[in-house]
Every structure is written in structure tokens, then in C-alpha cells.
Amino acid sequence: MDTHLDTDSRNNLTELPISPSGILWQNDFITPDHEQRLISIFQTELTWPERNGRLSLHYGYTFDYKTFGIDPDIPYKEFPEWLQPLIPTSESRPPDQVCLQYYPPGAGIPPHVDSHRAWDQLYALSLGAPVLMALKKGKGKAKEEQQRVEIDLLPRSMMKLGGEVRLHWTHGIAKRKTDTLPDGSVRIRKDRWSITYRWAREGECECGDTELCDTAQARLGTEKEKRSVLAAAAGAESDIKSGSESPSGFQAQEAAEYGR
Ligand SMILES: O=C(O)CCC(=O)C(=O)O
Ligand SMILES: [Fe+2]
């Protein structure tokens, strides 16, 4: 495969001039040709889980959907050849965990904040069809205090979620077949892939956000031991119905869907 990307072309993020702050963005992280070659690898060379909805494959350390951190039982997997030229070079080291996800039309990912305890920096590369991502703040608050911003995840764009948006806003993709754009036009969802890169946190998160930070919740003693996720995994209807919140601030049903 032609992988002639120089280091600079992988380190060209600039902050979007919008609120929330902390969204760093790079259009055309790769060329359309390169994107097509990747999609063909995804479609013909990789073995995906056999089920409907969003599908995930992991490289480096494996993401543990019970703890939302690194799965200690699964050995490190080297990054495959196709992935190597897609690794951002803007951090001081390569990511510890990389997740390739396939979203068939209609699939989404529930609003969530990636675990503060486990992870520091987060990046996502979008491939295939565009999709709207919803950023939200203040879920537990009165309607007028809730904030919601949509960003269009364009194919071949690299996004870093840092600072305010990474720590204090959730991100998610609604499960639906179309997206309505700001100009009112309706865009039909098509196949999308994303590559999420996560850097393990060194030291503890000090953000203190007791609504979204699992470290802040643990210090307060309010962390509910990922109860909703465990309950959902065990199929415990009553716990699911009670809607107990997971530490990352989303509910049992959503947690079960995130953990796929
Ligand atoms: O698909 C994306 O762009 C984002 C995925 C995501 O938020 C995650 O895997 O935690
Ligand atoms: Fe995420």
C-alpha cells in the first residue's frame, strides 16, 4: 500500500473556533485514494463480529467494556500494517489503544464520556460516509441549562477531543437513518468507519467533575461500580429498569449498547 505520508501531514490539527473548546481538527488526514484502499481492506480482509449494529475491532491494548479501561486479560496486539500510517504523531508517544468501528446506516453510539480514570487523550478518524455527532452538557440539569452542539464528522477528518469537550461534555451519535443538517437538508446515512485512538492516563484525573469523571466519583464514594453495565451484561431486568447511572453518566441500556 502507498503510505507516503510524512510526519507533518499527521500533525496538523487546529482548534475549531466554537464552543465547547477543545475540539482540534484536521481535514483530509488522508487522501480519498488511501481512504478507498482502507475501506476495501476493512470489507475484504478483516474478520468482524457476526451481529447487527456497530462493530468494533481492537489493536494495541484491548478496550474492556466492563471497566471502560484496558482489558488486562488480552495481550497487546501490534498495529497492523494498514494502521501504522494512520497513527497521529502529535502526542509524545503512540496511542495505547486503537479501536476500528463500523457503523452500518442507522447505527450510533450512546452519549458517553470516555473514562477519565483510564484515558487521557482521545482522537477519532472518520472514514466513509459523514455523520453528525452530538456533544452535550448538563444532562441532569433543567432543560434551559442543557447545552447541545452538533458537529459533522466528515470523511478523512481527524478530530482530537481535548480539554473542556473531552472532560465536561458527552459525545455520541444518534441511532437514525438520516441526519438533518443546519441548512435543513436531510442526508441519508451510509456506511461509516471510525478509528478511535486512546492514550492511557498517567496519574489521576483532577478535573473534579462529579457528573462525568469516574475518578471524581470514586473519591466522593458515589461511583456505582459500573453497576448498570454489569447488570445489563447479566440481563438483570430490574436493575436495567431502575435506570441506575453508570459512572460515565449514561444509563444501563445505553451502557449495554456502548459495550458492544
Ligand atoms: O465513531 C466515532 O467517531 C467516535 C467513537 C467513540 O466515541 C468511542 O469509540 O468512544
Ligand atoms: Fe467516545
From TrEMBL:
This is Fe2OG dioxygenase domain-containing protein. Residues 94-201 form the Fe2OG dioxygenase domain. It comes from the Eukaryota. PROSITE patterns: FE2OG_OXY. Residues 241-251 have a biased composition (Polar residues). Residues 236-260 are annotated as: Disordered. The lineage of its organism: Eukaryota, Fungi, Dikarya, Ascomycota, Pezizomycotina. Pfam families: 2OG-FeII_Oxy_2. Signal peptide: none annotated. It comes from Aspergillus pseudodeflectus. InterPro entries: AlkB-like, AlkB-like_sf, ALKBH4, Oxoglu/Fe-dep_dioxygenase_dom.
